Amino acid sequence: MGITIYHNPKCSKSRQTLQLLEDKGVAPEIVLYMDTPPTADEFKAILKKLGKSAAEVLRAKEAKEEGLSKDMDEEALIKGMIANPRCIERPIVIKGAKAVLGRPPENVLALV
User: Which bin fits 51, alpha (ψ -120 to 50), beta or left (φ > 0)?
Assistant: First the structure.
């Protein structure tokens, strides 16, 4: 079963997480989600695998800049996050039915 990383190469934690996976011999599928964000349905599936709500993976600074808030209802927040993918916490690493946030990068070791 493969591993997928929703990666932002400009983010140090995302780069560290990818490096950690590669150091463990994993060649993950890399999704550059800033260029190709997930659809709303894909993002809902990711949230389910993470066991988190959209508000729990919302980046506060970026959200404020984009007019998004944890107080928004889930559907509106998901729509806003997909339209502004920089507001999505990163990196997200998925393996099968499980996913983790790579903050800290060592979280991904649970999937390897």
Answer: left
- 3-class SS of residue 85: helix
Evaluate if residue 1 carries a pLDDT over 90.
Answer: no
Angle at alpha carbon of residue 81, lines to 19 and 30, rounded to 5°: 25
**Whether 87 is catalytic:** no
Q: Of 3, 6, 8, 11, which one is the catalytic site residue? A: 11
Q: Is the dihedral of CA 18, 70, 84, 65 positive or negative?
A: negative
Strand partners, 94: 4, 99
Could you tell me if 5 and 30 are in contact, meaning their C-beta atoms sit under 8 angstroms apart? Answer: yes
Mean pLDDT to the nearest integer, 56-85:
96
What is the pLDDT, as a whole number, of residue 82?
A: 97
pTM of the complete model: 0.94
